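Sample intake — TetR/AcrR family transcriptional regulator
Collected from: Rheinheimera aquimaris
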Amino acid sequence: MNKRIQNMADNRAKLITAARKAFAEKGYTGASMDDLTADAGLTRGALYHNFGDKRGLLAAVVEQIDSDMAMRAHAIGAKEQDEFQALLAEGAAYIRMALEPEVQRIVLLDGPAVLGDPSQWPSQSSCLQATRITIERLIAQGVIKTVDAEAAARLLSGAALNAALWIAASPNPQDVMPKAIEAFKLLASGLLKHDS
């Protein structure tokens, strides 16, 4: 039984690895299921068994990359001494990742086109909850204004996501990125409590 479970996990990992490569190089529509299963050393049956179909495989790849993006952004934020600055750094890091070809193509272009609204993805829900908890702490500490924490988290998360989507779809992503980060930071700073 354990050997069978391990084989299934290995097959799943091989398919996700092959799909990441194929989707990054050829895009979702250009990636052939036969080519990516052959690249993984598996059959279409293994793909169907593990993911249902090509769309299910894309969802698993997007989940992996988007979760990795969140962890990387969190690690960047963790370097800040101040929790509000950490929140800004995380958002800016997420936005900057829109310049990475794999992120751009798979998560920000093909993901929404095939899987629908990114704000409904499980990985985005995890980020949203982490942001809400941070905002609740910042409210309790008196750093930011008293506001509905979920509303603020949704708006900040949405701003970072939409900035990344804008960069990915732009003909000049390098030009758009600094504008997007500056606007994101200004919007988020509006939550700060200013003592008069």
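Post-analysis note: The radius of gyration is 19 Å.
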